[in-house]
Write a structure and sequence with these properties.
Elements: E1 2-6, H1 11-24, E2 27-31, H2 40-47, E3 55-59, H3 62-72, E4 76-79, E5 85-86, E6 97-100, H4 109-114, E7 117-120, H5 132-147
Parallel strand pairs: 1-2, 1-6, 2-3, 4-6, 4-7, 5-7
Length: 154
């Protein structure tokens, strides 16, 4: 399983998701351009000393990511406030990629259209959204639980 971040806006959220990926032993795709300078100094600050443990692939565009995803295989699962299927009612596969949109505006329609499935996290009425890093952690946790892919515990 992998996380994919579509043009992330906030370096702290990106760092948090990279740290999560390192701790869970999964890879991350970052689809650029980012809303911040993506460099080692900023990522070290946000991701602390975990970054060397992440299988990180940077894609310079959506098209570049799509080409790489096609070659790698697996489904593209978009987390969205505009989805109809609840994330806990979905059956995950080990080769799924969970796609997270920009903090400021999600993803454009052509990205929605490309996803194999769109999932939502139910929220209290009149609430707009959950932080992208927390959303990613919730859905990834469910995916890893279902597929039995949590890292081995000593």
């Amino acid at each position: 399983m992998r996380l994919a971040l579509f043009q992330p806006d906030i370096p702290q959220n990106t760092g948090t998701l990279l740290r999560l990926a390192a701790c869970m032993g999964i890879g991350v795709d970052i689809i650029e351009p980012c809303g911040f300078v993506l460099d080692d100094k900023r990522m070290r600050r946000a991701g602390m000393d975990y970054l060397h443990r992440v299988d990180l692939i940077r894609h310079n565009s959506w098209d570049s990511f799509v080409a790489a995803k096609k070659e790698a295989g697996g489904r593209l699962i978009l987390l969205s406030t505009k989805a109809a299927h609840i994330y806990t009612d979905f059956t995950y596969a080990k080769d799924d990629t969970l796609l997270l949109g920009r903090e400021s505006e999600g993803v454009p329609q052509h990205v929605h259209d490309h996803a194999d499935e769109r999932l939502i996290i139910p929220m209290a009425q009149d609430m707009r959204s959950i932080n992208v890093a927390i959303s990613g952690a919730m859905v990834l946790g469910e995916g890893l639980r279902q597929t039995g892919d949590f890292p081995a515990y000593p």
